[in-house]
Amino acid sequence: MPEPITPGGAPAPEPSEASTASVPESPAPSAEPAPAPIPGPAAGPTLTSAGPLPAPGEAESVPAPAAPLPGPSGTPFDMTVADGPFGRPGRSLRGSPFVFGFTAALGVLTAWWLVQAVASAGSMIILIVVSLFLAVGLNPAVEALQRRNLSRLLAITVVFLGVIALFVVFGLAVVPPLTTQFTQFVDNVPQYVQELQNNRIIRDLDQRFQLLEKLQQYVTSGDFGTQMFGGVLGLGSVLLGAVFNSLTVLVLTLYFLGSLTSIKEMGYRLVPRSRRTRTRLLGDEIIQRIGGYVAGNLIVSLIAGVTTFTFLSIMRVPYALALALIVALTDLIPMVGAFIGAGVASLVGFFVSPTVGIVCVVFFTLYQQVENYLIAPKVMLSSVDVPPLATVVSALLGGALLGVVGALLGIPMAAAVLLILREVVLPRQERL
User: Fold this and answer.
1) pLDDT tens digits, residue range 51-76?
2) What is the pTM of this model?
3) How far apart are CA 128 and CA 328, in angstroms?
């Protein structure tokens, strides 16, 4: 048997019995299976999670990382984060009842603040909506002038000057007659009181309670005119408010009319590109219908004003132009506007004579039937296709929400909603 060779080249000494006896025997292999190896890098050795230190040249093994402790809301909490200069970070507050309640309270307060802000700016929002509505309604006239080789700026100038001229004519035709008639009414109160005293029933009531004398003193003392508007300061605030609102609507209408194209393009760009083409078609159709409704309503009101002026001039009713403008303006209000204008004109007719008043009532009753069944359907047929029931419901709801402005906006909004239902909602329901 050859002798073993040591690394230095000398023969290795044979082990003695003592040294042999001192070497402990290797323990018997355990019956427990070794832990599963953890796969290491593709080109490296396999790492084990436990076991004795490897001999030189063998693969090193690393202990398996301890499982992280559960944190708040079931998320793992890493305990191996090193301490910073101010200590170890604490647990996250996510899911804490305090944080949830604080966030909810902030949301409620923000919503309440937004509601209060909208309520405070409600009057200005209404003016903005009215101005935008008028701009959309005047846009067809601007486009018609553009088709006659006019630039948009020049077309807007012509249309806007026409609107201002209409306001000026209305003011000059209505304000002086109202002032004159109010002055004449105050001057003729004693005569009216004397005529009322000729009635036996009124004369008996006047002798018992002195009603006519108190009424005459109240009207002629000057308190009647001031208290109708809350005093001198109240009357001034009403006039200033009306002038301010009118100027605001005119200026905003001019700005909206000049930038209507850019406003539309910006609104369409907010829509996803895949739906932009269809949205553009629907939006242009809605704007066209709103403009058609405004133009058609103006045509119907113009016909009512011209017809009223002609009739009142034939009947020799004073202030025929002012009354015709009042009838045309109130005719813009759906459902009730025509009755208001007719009532004012008929009342002035009764001041002329009972016969003239009765003739005015008969005339306006017949004209309303002609307008409702002949003029309005033919004018509105090509612009707004709204069923009669939807017209009544939209006008009532708009009037209940925003008054006269809501009644004016109710019908075109109903036309827009019906268009979206017919072109978007119903086809989608059929595909489901």
Assistant:
1) 455 555 555 555 555 555 454 444 44
2) 0.60
3) 24
